[in-house]
Prior knowledge:
Number of strands: 2
Structural class: mainly alpha
Number of domains: 1
CATH architecture: Up-down Bundle
Strand order of the largest sheet: 1-2
CATH class: Mainly Alpha
Strand content: under 5%
Shape: globular
Radius of gyration: 18 Å
Largest sheet: 2 strands, antiparallel
Helix content: over 70%
Order of helices and strands: HHHHEHHHEHH
Amino acid sequence: MNLKKHIPNLITLLNLLSGCIALVFAGEANFEMAFFFVCLGIFFDFFDGFFARLFNVSSPLGLQLDSLADMVTSGVVPGYVMFKMLSNSVNSNPSLMYLPYLGFVITLGSCYRLANFNIDTRQKDSFIGLPTPANAIFILSLPLILKNSDSLLILEMLTNYSILLMVSIISAFILNAEIPLFALKIKKFNLKDNALQLFFLLISILLLVIFQFSGVALVIIFYVSLSVIMNLITGKKA
Length: 238
């Protein structure tokens, strides 16, 4: 029995388990732990593919498992977190009682992206549209920013249901937008081929150090913005 072929799938299932645990913590409004387990799930999501390539055991089953696990960790969880934030923002207003369910547009957008990713041959070495893990990290950072920020402006923005709804719609759009985003993987160990990735990494570290939880959201925004700028410079299209 070849045990190696089961290792990537086991890691993928750990991603799914992490997403399930994150969902429980999100339901309890423990967004710190929800954020941690989503990040842990994304960590497993990276390494299932790594070990599949290392052991040369990539399979159609692994591809499907990966998308199903991502659907929970990077699709259902951020949609539910936005639902919780919207629920808090409407303050039990009877006229807005159904509005929080629109937060699940993030989940719908994530589902469509994951299904499309499996059949889109253009996304082997880079991405078109924001990857679901990056979007999940962005959404999960919002309640942490709200909790840890002293800014009245941020407080007003992240408790305003109109802004949260707009974030949800933009999130679903950017997941599936025909916008090429540069790959973060380093394949050749030289400065010339990785200058963009290293620049992004340096700025990201600075953003996280300076802005902490807010820096998480800023890193994702910077990633998309930098990709768009590079596309304009190079003339790259999807």
